Amino acid sequence: MMTHLEIIKSTYEGKTSEENSRNLEKYLAPDAQWTEAAGFPLAGTFTGFEEIAKNVFYRLATEWIDYKFTPENYVADGDQVVAYGNYTGINKETNKPLNARVAHLWKLKDGKIISFEQFVDSKTVTDTM
Predict the structure, then answer these.
(1) What is the pTM (predicted TM-score) of this model?
(2) Could you give the CA distance from residue 39 to residue 67 in angstroms, rounded to a whole number?
(3) Which of 21, 44, 87, 122 has the highest CB neighbour number within 10 Å of its CB?
(4) Choices 1.10.10.10, 3.40.50.1980, 3.10.450.50, 3.90.226.10: CATH for 4-115
């Protein structure tokens, strides 16, 4: 069985974004809560992979060019893992580049992701848009 840190790393460090997505879907609990930060353009809490994909990943893929999170490092403690680093990409509407600091707080139980919470410099993101 993978450690919680290994599970979270598998959602960021696959060979392709499709591999990362497959790993997220594999380890995400059906009722997992996904929270995008207040002030962020996708702000809100979404439940389960389909709702997350529709309200977060689809929009990121259609509104940005090469949008990605690049982890700088991880901190793991029991059932929690924090990944921190930077969001980068180019907004399709403004053609402006993005570079925003971000941290993701993941909570896991029995080898499944039960929640995700984003902490981000939302002003940098909205200024880019």
Answers:
(1) 0.92
(2) 18
(3) 87
(4) 3.10.450.50
Q: Could you read off the pLDDT of 20-54 as tens digits, one per residue?
A: 989 999 999 999 999 999 998 989 999 999 999 99
Domain residue limits, the chain: 4-115
